[in-house]
Amino acid sequence: MRNDLTDNNTIRTTDGIGEAAAPATDISRRQAALIDLSYEPIFVWGLETGITEWNTGAERLYGYSRDEAIGRESHRLLQTISPLPLRKYLEILKTEGFWSGELRHQTKDGREVFVESRQQLVESDGRRLILETNRDITERYVETLRLTLLSPPICSLPCQKLWANTLRPDDAFSMRSTWKMTLRRCIAIFAAGPSR
User: Fold this and answer.
1) Can you give the pTM of this predicted structure?
2) Using alpha carbons only, what angle is made at residue 89 by residues 83 and 93, rounded to the nearest 5 degrees?
């Protein structure tokens, strides 16, 4: 099946058997409704205009309603922490038209979440927009971190018990002080030598 945009602003669908024409706006509305139903956070933002689209998946993960998000700069709204400086990250989007990687975002209620993000630069009505699709990987990230910290070369058995009781998915990023405190306890246990 193939869709082509015609001169009179209709989309012609060819399925090999016949053709059917539908107004482009009807198809756009249906596609927008399907995107809105996605469980995954999907939103569109402009380099100069901020967020222009915000689906229910984004509302669920981040806690911001569509009205609260529209017009806001996504990096500020979600307090994005990227593996690259923002300028370099935007430069890659502009030159290559695509970027994917892991980001850290903050939700409306202050939780920090890890997302696997895919972003694509698209042109629409003469505007350059970024289509961003994110997948929440916080639990996987925390579990990987927990297993890494519990591995034998890193911690002794008493330390492993401390870490196992300290790391939880709901406080993955907010655990900086807890992490430091637990690390200090591990160092103290290690310095004290084997328990009897």
Assistant:
1) 0.64
2) 140
